[in-house]
Design the sequence.
């Protein structure tokens, strides 16, 4: 019998959940401290403080009944069911709970007690308030609807939460919890019931001890976390060892089920077939989304998983099987830094891939694995970089359609595909410079990761790609072995004798209760997607809701600073300017603002960052694109071909300004170009004031030119190369003391796109969506550049990064 099966039998033999201390230890309760599943019945509001579900049975001996006492419990955050047999009594409990905000919850519990001769019922209510990580307050109204209601009060303290520790000990504050409980009767008498101490030790070992005042007894409890299984052995009286309860609860605290194992067994986290990761937008359900159970996994999810592995001594390695693709080079550089931290912690990285098809991703990230295994039928698509787009001018000329591109420079390339028949010289030169800069970063990352394993220089190997035949990739030193997934897993476990592969990081109940009262609060505002008119959609687009959020944060006395996570290629200039003004006012109010850029911080994405106290970008971030453009369509030629002739009655020639049914008049074109120049001057002045440069210095790096973060640092457009870690370090140095980060995601929550509504995401339609998606999205953008209430909509567009 292997070790895993043995532990499973031990757990199932003692299968038991939800011990209520009141059932085994007189009147002792833990109203303010859940500890774990075993004491949640003491205050039904505690259910709302935990995620996940639990199920099981518990057993305790009984002198008058050889079968003992048995409980069956089903638990979820919203509802709980319990069926208990004690001698000739049967108890049924049904309850529910509700979170009101992040620190307060309410609960309801209905108890039905029946014997052979009578049945009684009782209704309990509970409330829980956790304002800080050091304090939890609980209150219950027991038998609230009966003739003798009792008000119960509980307080719990975590004194170590005040201790100023940092990673890897930043969970230190929840190790020790002190509790005290009392009740208030109808006569107003406050009676002390119990006091307790609970300690959660490394390795999933928990200890609890308590003193019950009415009976003057001491109780104790020992717990072990075995994967998703929480085993408890409790004695309400340490002087009577036969008076006990024992068991194990199967729990899923917000994560999928894991393998039952010893807490001392070395574990290797296996991340299998993780889908492509979106940007760093905040998404609920970390573990479920990352493991493909539901939701859209993000880069932020992956970073948090890796951070937990680094800090958890029970995990010795991470094994990716078909690793995910990310959104851009900046994302890869952010994850690379997390993997560096994994190696510094003495832990290994293993990667298996059916094929490595994401160009650039391989060099920047997965090549740093301690062992990189490729399927014998796979390939490595490493090759020189290229950017390609379709140019439609000749097609539109045949159709009689013309697009007037108002960009003063061909380096502001957003509309070049509509107004040119091929890539213009300025756009080509900019792209070649930018691609060369990115490929240089790829090559440096590949050299640092593979070192002497490479059979040649990284530059030569990149230029010789792709490596479609696996043996070629092996011969070049780009991978370590050719093998199948099953053999890869065997080899990984062989490197760590006695280890097990697990598909989850069980997240137990020991989470911080709330922010520290000693910490200063920094609001982390995530800005991701195009900048648009209107409120914007959370995680997909940036709108005026961001400006409103910044205004509220500026007036919020709790908030000491703001961290902007910017990942945007640009968009509407009016919205960009409104957001930038709120950033300026926030800094002027004495609250530092740090902008940390992801894959993009260009055009409007740079505009909203310009007034920040500090700008941080990854070396591979695409930023700059300081410039403005608009495009005016004219279908006059197409109408003429069809024999359609527009005519109108107008009080003045200017009434037909920028009429799309006519060729654009010289006076109209001049007015539009003057407006573009005015908006550009405004953009330049914003950057000049925010970056403390002269307008002339800004124009030297402007004209729509795109720069990598590494180039932008030398040109004064960013202050530091790095990511979230560097941005937080600067903020913490400015604020002094401890900092609590609260994440906000402005915008509306409905992120369903029109394309998703038209094309389902399954079967053949998924392939059609992949092919038709870019074309339909482009058509949607052209439509957005049409007329709105007689005023050309393009005039409010700052222009977007024109690099596919």
Sequence:
């Amino acid at each position: 019998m292997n070790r895993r099966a043995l532990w499973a039998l031990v757990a199932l033999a003692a299968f038991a959940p939800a011990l209520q201390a009141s059932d085994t230890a007189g009147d002792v309760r833990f109203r303010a401290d859940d500890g774990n599943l075993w004491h949640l019945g003491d205050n039904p509001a505690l259910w709302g403080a935990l995620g996940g579900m639990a199920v099981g049975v518990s057993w305790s001996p009984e002198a008058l009944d050889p079968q003992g006492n048995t409980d069956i419990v089903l638990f979820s955050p919203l509802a709980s069911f319990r069926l208990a047999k004690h001698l000739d009594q049967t108890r049924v409990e049904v309850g529910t709970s509700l979170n009101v905000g992040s620190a307060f919850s309410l609960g309801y519990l209905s108890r039905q007690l029946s014997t052979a001769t009578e049945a009684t019922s009782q209704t309990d209510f509970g409330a829980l308030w956790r304002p800080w990580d050091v304090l939890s307050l609980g209150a219950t109204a027991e038998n609230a609807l009966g003739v003798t209601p009792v008000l119960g009060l509980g307080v719990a303290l975590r004194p170590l939460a005040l201790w100023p520790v940092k990673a890897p000990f930043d969970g230190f504050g929840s190790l020790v919890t002190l509790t005290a409980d009392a009740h208030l009767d109808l006569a107003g008498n406050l009676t002390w019931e119990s006091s307790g101490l609970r300690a959660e030790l490394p390795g999933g070992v928990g200890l609890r001890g308590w003193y019950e005042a009415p009976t003057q007894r001491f109780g104790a409890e020992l717990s072990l976390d075995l994967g998703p299984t929480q085993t408890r052995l409790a004695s309400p009286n340490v002087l009577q060892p036969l008076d006990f309860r024992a068991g194990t609860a199967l729990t899923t605290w917000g994560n999928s089920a894991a393998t039952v194992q010893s807490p001392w067994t070395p574990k290797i986290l296996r991340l299998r077939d993780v889908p492509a990761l979106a940007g760093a937008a905040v998404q609920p359900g970390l573990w479920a989304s990352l493991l493909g159970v539901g939701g859209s996994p993000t880069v932020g999810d992956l970073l948090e998983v890796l951070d937990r592995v680094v800090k958890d001594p029970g995990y010795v390695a991470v094994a990716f099987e078909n690793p995910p693709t990310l959104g851009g080079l900046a994302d890869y550089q952010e994850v690379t830094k997390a993997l560096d931290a994994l190696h510094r912690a003495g832990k290994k990285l293993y990667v298996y891939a059916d094929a490595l098809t994401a160009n650039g991703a391989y060099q920047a990230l997965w090549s740093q694995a301690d062992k990189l295994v490729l399927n014998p039928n796979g390939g490595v698509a490493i090759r020189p970089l290229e950017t390609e787009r379709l140019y439609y001018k000749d097609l539109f000329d045949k159709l009689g359609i013309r697009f007037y591109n108002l960009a003063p420079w061909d380096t502001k390339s957003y509309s070049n595909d509509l107004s040119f028949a091929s890539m213009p010289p300025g756009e080509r030169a900019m792209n070649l410079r930018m691609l060369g800069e990115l490929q240089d970063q790829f090559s440096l990352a590949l050299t640092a990761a593979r070192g002497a394993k490479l059979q040649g220089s990284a530059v030569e190997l990149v230029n010789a790609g792709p490596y479609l035949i696996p043996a070629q990739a092996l011969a070049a030193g780009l991978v370590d072995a050719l093998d199948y997934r099953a053999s890869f897993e065997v080899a990984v476990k062989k490197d760590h004798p006695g280890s097990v592969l697990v598909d989850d990081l069980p997240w137990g109940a020991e989470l911080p209760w709330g922010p520290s009262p000693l910490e200063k609060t920094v609001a982390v505002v995530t800005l991701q997607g195009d900048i648009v008119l209107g409120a914007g959609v959370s995680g997909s687009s940036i709108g005026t809701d961001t400006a409103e959020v910044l205004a509220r944060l500026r007036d919020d006395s709790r908030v000491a600073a703001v961290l902007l996570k910017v990942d945007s290629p640009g968009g509407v200039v009016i919205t960009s300017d409104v957001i930038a003004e709120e950033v300026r006012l926030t800094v002027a109010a004495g609250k530092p603002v740090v902008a940390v850029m992801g894959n993009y911080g260009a055009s409007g994405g740079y505009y909203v960052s310009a007034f920040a106290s500090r700008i941080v970008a990854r070396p591979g971030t695409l930023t700059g694109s300081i410039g403005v453009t608009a495009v005016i369509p004219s279908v006059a030629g197409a109408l003429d071909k069809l024999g359609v002739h527009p005519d109108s009655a107008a009080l003045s020639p200017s009434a037909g300004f920028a009429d799309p049914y006519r060729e654009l008049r010289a006076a109209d074109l001049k007015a539009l170009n003057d407006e573009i120049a005015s908006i550009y001057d405004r953009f330049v002045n914003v950057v000049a004031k925010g970056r403390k440069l002269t307008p002339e210095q800004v124009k030297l790096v402007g004209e729509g030119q795109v720069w990598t973060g590494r180039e932008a640092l030398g040109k004064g457009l960013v202050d530091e190369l790095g990511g979230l870690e560097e941005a937080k370090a600067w903020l913490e140095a400015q604020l002094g003391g401890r900092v609590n980060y609260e994440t906000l995601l402005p915008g509306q929550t409905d992120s369903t796109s029109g394309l998703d509504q038209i094309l389902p995401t399954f079967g053949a339609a998924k392939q059609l969506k992949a092919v038709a998606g870019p074309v339909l999205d482009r058509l949607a953008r052209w439509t957005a550049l049409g007329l709105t209430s007689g005023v050309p909509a393009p005039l409010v567009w700052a222009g977007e990064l024109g690099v596919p």
Q: What stands out?
A: The longest strand covers residues 119-132. The chain has a mean pLDDT of 81. The chain has 22 helices and 36 strands. The longest helix spans residues 425-450.
